[in-house]
Task: structure prediction
Amino acid sequence: VANTGVYMFALAAAASAAAPLESVDGAAFFEPFSSDWESRWLVSKDADFQGTWIHEAYTEPEGTPGDKGLMVGNEAKKHAVSHLFKEPIDPKGTGLVVQYELHMKKDLKCGGAYLKLLTASEELDHDGFKAETPYTIMFGPDKCGGTNKVHFILRHKSPATGEWEEKHLKKAPTPLLAVGETHLYTAIVGADNTVTLLIDNEEKVKASLLESDDFTPPVNPPKEIDDPDDKKPDDWVDTAKIDDPEASKPDDWDEDAPMMIEDPKAEKPESWLDDAPLQVPDPEAEPPDDWDEEEDGEWEAPIVDNPDCKEFGCGEWKAPQIRNPDYKGKWTAPKVDNPEYKGVWKPKQIANPGYFSDEQPHAMAPIGGIGIELWTMQDGALFDNILISTDPAPAKVAAEAFAARSEAEKAAKK
Result:
């Protein structure tokens, strides 16, 4: 998968709904979740995972009639299901494509909808997921609270220390999770160490496993690090500016002078009505035609603002407020350069004992299986047409089937 441009193909709009995919030639793994899915997948027997999985149809109107996927069956429970490969998939020299369709039957407010490509290791258990089951790649949507992104996480083994560390893609795209819609999620790891994420065949992010700014922490650590034993000296001065010790408040500085004062030049207009009321009976109001004073009593006009006040001004006259030209506020000494300033303190740099340089991080740990392991507060996330390949061509075939479904879904909703 050295050139992801091969994958960026033009997809023709489907004239009618296609039949559900059953297989994809050339794929290292393809799962359409047909009726016999339970013969290939194992629901975790671990006590932590109590959630059930349901073989479920898509929301009507269906883009691909009769198609079904595997759906999260319970709210607020941990779910886990997995499939182990007969032979590990090794991306070294070829790269990797992982792709799947996600259909939301309910609004996802807090939960994940991602896949895990499980590391080929002795920890893989034919009884299914456990909390410690290691993965090589985690990919897909995750939404809860302030998090709403498509994860791409690579577990990478340090050749220097042998320790595993999760490398998170920094610029993760925002997922599409509308209820009743199906969306295609694709991750392409190239043999050139690029990582490309697509949603519905549209490129959203392109990054590199070799760039320190693209992943956190970076795949390759820095050559030097801060010395953890180096401490800032007690007498280190890192305040750049100080109050001028020679400055003093001027004798005529009045800190008590108000900010606003009455305008001394203002005069009360001659037409000002000191004694006029602010509100008066409405002079234009008239009693209703059916008003009977004997039965209804004396009619009184409604009270309105005095129109003369708006034109001439009424009540006690007060001069308008203006900014006090003598206002200076609280006096503070001007700042000057601190003669004791030594600069911003930084610990000295030492050689990083964990440093290494992996020039081919795409050659990740071989993949021994695939799993869906989630803790979600909502049910209704439906997974389908999961594909893993070292060649973009099989993924193209599955993407064309998705395009047909998507166009049919949109047409049926019109």
The longest helix spans residues 392-413. Residues 6-16 have pLDDT under 50 and may be disordered. The longest strand covers residues 77-89.
